[in-house]
């Protein structure tokens, strides 16, 4: 038995090395770099002071928070109904839909931006098709604007939300519905008093994942709008790679602030989830 346990521990060594080399080392390098003077000749808090005092970086935080909260809110609402709709199909079709949903959840980044440009761009398929029927889509919607960026964010949030929320509906037992019906409760009353409270902790957890997913999204936004819109991941990329000249230390400080924002969001979600579960008891 000891020999077997030793073998199991040995198999964990490559995984631990992967974690250390590709997660912990870059994380420590980023945090240390955020406190270094440009050029790495000393220690300073100047970068953090510049972030808090510079309206340009404050706007980047604000824009990223707004689009993340908005897209996560819309995404979680649509996902709740979409995931429930999937459960109404036969098991065979549920599996097929989930496979397709899994594929679409990984369809993000530059390919997603290109697909939307082909379909809804200035000369996109649907744009031209609607013009043929006398409808000018450009009058109310522009893909390369804030509304277009929000639509794309909601699009890649939806499959993720469906995948995360689909299993929780299997926790709603048919016997609960039957008991509620025998007691005179309507389906709406059942979901209001029983179903939604049971699902609420999982919905809160999924919302936090969606929020983090939006805050860190970079490739799709940059491929669609470039540097037109001031988003935090785009600012970090510009400072590291250098739109004019590189400032990796300031970029590390921004990335550290982004990481702290995500950690704070996850801690708040954990606190809310525990409180909801405690109230349900």
What do these coordinates show?
The two termini are 42 Å apart. The chain contains twelve helices and no strands. It has 281 residues and is mostly helical. Helix 1 packs across helix 12, helix 2 packs across helix 3 and helix 11 runs antiparallel to helix 12. The model has no long low-confidence stretch (mean pLDDT 85).
Strand content: under 5%
Taking all Cα atoms into account, the compactness measure Rg is: 23 Å
**In total, how many beta strands?**
0
Low-confidence stretches: none
* Alpha-beta content class: mainly alpha
Largest sheet: none
How far apart lie the N and C ends? 42 Å
Provide the succession of SSEs.
HHHHHHHHHHHH
Can you give the mean pLDDT?
Answer: 85
* Overall outline: globular
Share of helix, binned: over 70%
Topology:
Elements (H helix, E strand, L loop, with lengths): L1 H33 L11 H8 L1 H33 L3 H15 L4 H11 L4 H8 L13 H20 L8 H9 L4 H29 L3 H7 L6 H10 L6 H33 L1
Question: What's the quick description here?
Answer:
By secondary structure, the chain is mostly helical. The protein has 12 helices and no strands.
Question: Which key phrases capture this entry?
Answer:
single chain; 281 residues; mainly alpha; 12 helices; globular
